[in-house]
Amino acid sequence: MAKKMNAFYAQSGGVTAVINASACGVIETARKHKDKIGKVYAGRNGIIGALTEDLIDTSKESASAIAALRHTPSGAFGSCRYKLKSLEANKAEYERLIEVFKAHNIGYFFYNGGGDSADTCHKVSQLSKKMGYPIQAIHVPKTVDNDLPITDNCPGFGSVAKYIAISTREASFDVASMCATSTKVFVLEVMGRHAGWIAAAGGLASDKDTEIPVVILFPEVAFDRKKFMANVDAKVKQYGYCSVVVSEGVHDADGKFLADQGLKDAFGHAQLGGVAPVVANMIRQDLGYKYHWAVADYLQRAARHIASKSDVEQAYAMGKAAVELAIKGKNAVMPTIVRKSDKPYKWTVGEAPLSKVANVEKMMPKSFISKDGFGITDKCRAYLEPLIQGEDYPPYHKNGMPKYVRMKNVAVAKKLAPFTVK
Amino acid sequence: MAKKMNAFYAQSGGVTAVINASACGVIETARKHKDKIGKVYAGRNGIIGALTEDLIDTSKESASAIAALRHTPSGAFGSCRYKLKSLEANKAEYERLIEVFKAHNIGYFFYNGGGDSADTCHKVSQLSKKMGYPIQAIHVPKTVDNDLPITDNCPGFGSVAKYIAISTREASFDVASMCATSTKVFVLEVMGRHAGWIAAAGGLASDKDTEIPVVILFPEVAFDRKKFMANVDAKVKQYGYCSVVVSEGVHDADGKFLADQGLKDAFGHAQLGGVAPVVANMIRQDLGYKYHWAVADYLQRAARHIASKSDVEQAYAMGKAAVELAIKGKNAVMPTIVRKSDKPYKWTVGEAPLSKVANVEKMMPKSFISKDGFGITDKCRAYLEPLIQGEDYPPYHKNGMPKYVRMKNVAVAKKLAPFTVK
Questions:
Q1: Where are the alpha helices (DSSP H) in B355-398?
Q2: Are strands A55-57 and A37-43 parallel, antiparallel or unpaired?
Q3: Which of B280, B299, B391 is closest, CB to CB, to A167?
Q4: Is B169 in CB contact (< 8 Å) with chain A?
Q5: Over the range B212-250, which residues count as b (16 or more CB within 10 Å of their CB) and which as e?
Q6: Per-residue CA distances from B29 to A104, B25, B37, B58 (Å)
Q7: Under 8 Å CB-to-CB from B64, ≥6 apart: which residues?
Q8: pLDDT value at position A1?
Q9: Tell me: the pLDDT tens digits for B281-303?
């Protein structure tokens, strides 16, 4: 039997409200299999920590600290935006990874991220063959953008969706109260540069129990100012008010982002603004309605206080399954979420080869966007609703603040010469 | 004994996450005293509903619907931004109010709002003397701005404060995860045009358990770009990242709002933007740090999903106390929150004459702002923390959405000729 190997775990790309729940799943499950897996080393600031041999010894963290990761947003070990080039383009980086893995007896590589990370993870899995070092690389899915293929959905998305759906409903109730003499249109800007999954979640603000006039601007639908204004105007005339949920990635037919209005301040300096104020200003110009606008930005993906229970459970399950796949001897795979039924929502854990995950972006199906281009279909609702089901509140301190944990993040002693990441 | 009179209740100005909890307190308490108070009529869209004789018969709402107001954000009967002029300047409006009160046998006037509403309520209370109609006017305090005098704090503020404190902590955890290779500064714009109470709540994101570098821009402190940048830079150098909480009302020494940068789009049209992107752009220009920014806008005052338990209880208590004061025969008063101790937080209900409430704006004491002008003092923390204590979650539907109630809002039959509100 092979000697017991350590594991490496890293968080990659934009963090989420539940990526630490996946870390919790990885570490807790590894700790249950001490006969098979030695220590779990986390990369400080993601894959950069592997390259610079900046490893965190998670065995120094108490069981209760690791358990608290489940209800703590963000990336507890630090994340990074860094994509490995191909083996041919930057062999030195791969050689360095192997050097670090060897020096620390690492045989398992758990990479927690989105599409780019799946690609990196896939490349690392090939080291085994190409460079003769035994490493099992397992990808742990994570992305608020919900754009990974094969898996029914991505951990991280459900909680953003819940936040956006609830925030849109709450703000809509607010506007409805004010619309007789004041604000008539509320505009909320949400994330999603390429795919409109998050914007679609704004459509959940309205349902059969609580009807709300919501107009969605998807990145998948070229912006048509005239059609949009007609839609908003009709809703204001019918309901007295209207909410607009706009994806940051909305663009016109020529591909020009709506957010890019060439704004200049009084000194002629270019200013970067959001798309929400642009849409709000257009509404003022074309319809004259009083508006308010908000930009959710990080608040939406960090909002662990209103995380979806489905999402937290799945994030944890993906971390756990990754370790179980590793123990089974798997390589170059990603655990997936497989939907069994919508109502009641049932799902199981599946598995996908990384070769089919890397570099594939799952867009919103056309059948999820209503014919007029400004709403979601029943099919979309049936898909989205299970993902925001259930509440999973963090514990709170007496002073009213959530108890989010911070790791000690104790460094593993370095054994190698320094390496510079370009 | 005088004949039993009906009551009029109206919501005024910007709504909050808990103004309906006050409505719940008013209506439930009135229903318990049917020997003294007849029906509670709500003004549709606030005082305008009284002027236009557009009254809502709340007796048509079930006990469970009224109870659900306690956990429903916004103004269930509609609010308005409308301030009565003085009796001398617009006698016709006051005569109309009396006409409507007489026609519907209204002897109690409960007005739920901030400083302007307290003034209106005070004027209505004077009708009794000046126009010979018996009306008891009681003001129910409400404002996210927390700027009413005498009362220790205002219902509505605690929940915004909790939302801003938690959101700032969550987003700060996010930035901390990303700062090694990406975003280093997060800017959050919050409400509060004149007083920095809400901005101050951003300071609660950091406490002895969880230290976070937060820089606050108060409307009380003239914006000094150089000092601000030095502060942000020092924090980024020490912690690797920094969060900035900026009040919408921040201005320079000349009183010019920071948000007012004379922005023009590519066509030369003036654009209204927020202050958060302005501050973020300045940070990019002066320090070169990558940033993200968010504008909370309505989300902060509508966020019933994370309301403060203290706040909900106080909002209800103010509504209840208003009715009890009316039953005791009081006029021209407002129930208040009287703090008995900080730790443990203890408070009782007091009473203030409207003559001392109307047209007085309570600003942040100087002793609440740190010497450098960018943070809160321990005294401020001791004041704020009790107000965000406890969670009071709304119930949820199975589909993951909060159960917010909508009233039937059945109109009372009109008895008078129409009246046009100018």
A1: 378-384
A2: antiparallel
A3: B299
A4: yes
A5: bbbbbbbbbbebeeeebeebbbebbeebbbbbbbbbbbb
A6: 69, 6, 10, 13
A7: none
A8: 44
A9: 999 999 999 999 999 999 999 99
**Is B166 close to A399, i.e. CB distance below 8 A?**
no
From CA B332, how far away is CA A353, in angstroms rounded? 73
Q: How far apart are CA B258 and CA B251, in angstroms?
A: 5
Chain B residue nearest residue A14, CA to CA: B178
| A402 preceded by a cis bond (ω within 30 of 0) | no
Q: Tell me the average pLDDT of chain B.
A: 95
Residue B267 pLDDT level (bands cut at 50, 70, 90): low
pLDDT at residue number B1: 44
Please give the full DSSP string across A343-397, using - where no structure is assigned.
TTTEEEEEEEEGGGTTT---PPPGGGB-TTSSSB-HHHHHHHGGGG-SB-PPPB-
Identify the closest residue of chain B to A185 by CA–CA distance. B298
Residue linked to tokens 């209106």:
B120
Residues B410, B105: Cα–Cα separation, whole Å: 18
At A279, which amino acid appears? V
Distance CA B261, CA B271 (A): 9
| Predicted ipTM beyond 0.90 | yes
Q: Between A46, A174, A301, which is nearest B301 by CB?
A: A174
Kindly report the backbone phi and psi dihedral angles of residue B395, in degrees, each rounded to the nearest multiple of 5, phi listed first: -70, 155
What distance in Å separates the CA atoms of residue B59 and residue B24, rounded to the nearest whole number? 12
A392 is catalytic: no
Mean of pLDDT values over A105-125: 95
Pairing between β-strand B291-295 and β-strand B106-113 as defined by DSSP bridges? unpaired
For the cut 50, the answer to whether the pLDDT of residue B176 exceeds it is yes
Distance separating alpha carbons of residues A403 and A397, to the nearest angstrom: 6
* Percent share of chain A, pLDDT over 90: 88
Q: Which two tokens stand for residue B284?
A: 């990019």
What gap in Å lies between CA A297 and CA A144, rounded to an integer? 12
For residue A348, which phi and psi values (nearest 5 degrees)? -135, 175
| B311-349 pLDDT per residue, tens | 999 999 999 999 999 999 999 999 999 999 999 999 999
CA gap B349, A253 in Å, rounded:
60
Q: Which residue has the tokens 């990659």?
A: A12
Amino acid at B90: N
Alpha helices (H) along B220-297: 225-239, 275-287
Spell out the domains of chain A, with CATH numbers in brackets. 5-143+304-359 (3.40.50.450), 157-302 (3.40.50.460)
The neighbouring-strand residues paired with B10 are B111
Residue A257 burial by CB count (10 A; 0-12/13-18/19+): exposed, middle or buried? middle
